[in-house]
Structures are given as C-alpha cells and as structure tokens.
C-alpha cells in the first residue's frame, strides 16, 4: 500500500499545487497557508484527540520533541521558500528545489540506515533530474544560479524541506500519520494566526474566507490529503522512495499549467515530463510487494 499512498500524494499535490498558486496570488502566502493548516488542525482533531492525550499522559518526551522539531522545520522551510520567491526569479529558484529529494535520501541513509539498491538510486537521480528539467524554464538560467537574488534562501528552503520530508516520515512511524499531520498543522496555524493578528490582517482573512470559501476549502482539502497520503506511504516503503514518487507531482502541475494556462514548454521541459513519470513508475515496480 505504500506505493499506492505515494501516488495518491503525487496526484493530490499536483492538483493542490495548481490551487495553491491560485490561492497565494489571490490571498497572499500567509493567509493561504493559514487556511490550509487550520483546516487540518480542526478536521483531524476528532480523529486523533484520544491518541494525542494518551501520548501526553504516557509522557513520551522523545515523540513530542520530534513533532515539535518537525513543525519548526516545515515552518522555516515555508518561510525560506516564500522569501526566495519574493526576492528572486521563479525560473531560477524552482530548479534548486528538485534537490530536496537528495537531502531526504542522505538523511535517510545516515540516520535510519535506509539503503537503496543501485537501480533504485539511479531512478531517484533520474527523477531529480527530470524535475529539475521541468522546473527550468531556460537553460541559460543555470548560469545565474550562483548570483541570482533569492538563491541562498532557495538553498536553505531545499535543505529544510528535504529534512522536513525525512522528519515527517519518521514522525509518522513514531506516532501516527494523522498525529504528525495534525500536530504540525496546528503548530503552524497557531504561529501564522498570531502573525495575521499582529499585522492587522484578521478582517482581510474573514473577508477572504467568506467570499472565496469554495477555493480555500478545495485547496485545504486536497493539500492535506497529499500530506496524509505521504505520511501513510512512509510506513511501508523507504522515505526517500515515497518522497521521490510524490515529488513527481511537479510534472502533473506542469501539465495542468500547460492545459489550463496555455503555457509553452521548451524541449528540455518535455524531456523532463517524459523522464520523471517513467522513472517514478520503474521505481515503484522495484517495490512490487508494497502495492
């Protein structure tokens, strides 16, 4: 079932990323992210409160610390991501993000001894390359990677999100997929709500939620399905394989942009659109017993 959940995450993130872009442009990053995390904090609570209170009563500091660290890392990754895209060019910044798979793989190998076969490693690198090709709007932008504004923030975001993928998987195994999703979402929503109040955007939040409820509900539902599916997938397959397959959602997002926004792709982007899904399917087939 691990592979099935990974592909559910892929599909959900592909659609969710399309809706997140639309939401962020309409409401701003903070409000969009708050609605997504607050949704999970409210909807998942009835399903986890007994387990969570049991966790508190048992006094398991290791698990609580892990959940707190995971929340902090995901929050920092999001903030670095927003800052990179704010000050830099998206065409230069996005290809850097493909390497979060490599960060996740490195942490998995060093910390929890997740070792892949040579074929699996080759396919993971193929997926990374394919994602980079799809994200790269112009090959000339490669020359700007070292000097473009925002690249340092993008590198920090990549490291943090790679670590977040790893911690999310470990947290799901140590507690449960629903607990790690609820805890991180509730923690982020709390911090973001405080920020909204301090910046005087509470009235704006209420207005957006009232006038654009269907869009905010859709993006919140689909994005949280993706995170929950990703967490469940890590229970039975290596975290790096789950990350590699689910991160291929970038290809689906590109196809949606091609279809609905009539975006034009370059030849190397079409190459990425072919390489990534083929490598993802082949990677899944190396774990036939997990379907």
Mean pLDDT: 83
Overall shape: it is globular
Uncertain regions spanning at least 5 consecutive residues: none
Integer count of domains = 1
Largest sheet entry: none
Instruction: Indicate the radius of gyration in whole angstroms.
Output: 19 Å
Tell me the distance between the termini.
5 Å
Which class best fits the helix and strand makeup? mainly alpha
List the helices and strands in order.
HHHHHHHHHHHHHH
Strand content is under 5%
Structure description:
- By secondary structure, the protein is mostly helical.
- The chain has one domain (2-290).
- Helices cover 81% and strands 0% of the residues.
- It is built from 14 helices and no strands.
- It has helices spanning 2-27, 29-43, 45-58, 61-87, 90-97, 100-111, 118-135, 151-174, 177-198, 202-211, 213-233, 239-247, 249-260, 267-285.
- Helix 1 packs across helix 12 (239-247).
- It is globular and about 45 Å long.
List keywords for this structure.
291 residues, mainly alpha
Task: Summarize the topology.
Layout: H1 2-27, H2 29-43, H3 45-58, H4 61-87, H5 90-97, H6 100-111, H7 118-135, H8 151-174, H9 177-198, H10 202-211, H11 213-233, H12 239-247, H13 249-260, H14 267-285
